[in-house]
Write a structure and sequence with these properties.
The structure is a single chain. By secondary structure, the chain is of the alpha+beta class. It has helices at about 1-5, 10-25, 45-50, 60-65, 70-75, 80-90, and strands spanning about 95-100, 110-120, 145-150, 155-165, 170-175, 180-190, 200-210, 215-219. The protein contains six helices and eight strands; from the N terminus they run ααααααββββββββ. A hairpin with a 4-residue loop joins strand 3 (about 145-150) and strand 4. The longest helix is centred in the first third of the chain and has 16 residues, at about 10-25. The protein is elongated, with a radius of gyration of 20 Å. One of its GO terms (biological process) is spliceosome conformational change to release U4 (or U4atac) and U1 (or U11). It is a multi-pass membrane protein. It comes from Tripterygium wilfordii (Thunder God vine).
Length: about 220
Amino acid sequence: MVYVISSNGWLSLALLAMEVSQMVTQGMWERDSMLLQLPHFTKEWAKRCQENPGKKIETVFDLVEMEDNERCELLPMTDSQLLDIAKFCNQFPNIDMSYEVLDGQNVGAGDDITLQVTLERDMEGKAEVGPVDAPRYPKAKEEGWWLVVGDVKSNQLLAIKRVSLQRKSKVKLEFAAPAEAVRKSYTLYFMCDSYLGCDQEYNFTVDVKETGGPVEYSG
């Protein structure tokens, strides 16, 4: 679905298909609490977290950032259940992403723009990434990602690449600059195929010169 849609350049629909992949893998709807991906969690537990005094706990990252004593007070579960939750949180993707336009000084109207993306996972002492924690999925599944560059205003998908990430990776995406001199805004998406709540989105702007002069880049 993702690649059939992407071949037509439909941005919003492609992103929706990626989110469908997440929902199918986790056996959840997008409207459900992201905490329901956690083992032993029910809607009641998710509601308890969302109503936590002081700070709502709505994502896996919110739960990880809590102090141990606060987490234990919020989740009065057995030691075995808490251990299962800790294992899931350690497995949940925590990835730093940075990006830059390469050779941006010489890009003119109609030229190709090359975006280099650097991805680095916080491994937390793990040697490798294991299979996706998805008990509702009928078979073992390896984690995968999509990198996408899109023009939100025109709903156009400009570049897409499938990524398999262990510890660190550098990926290049190429797409055509506009045919005329213009300041153009783009959005970079990093979309997971297996988990809800770990996607990333960044906006950047490119000033394309009619004569092929310097391109000013701002993140």
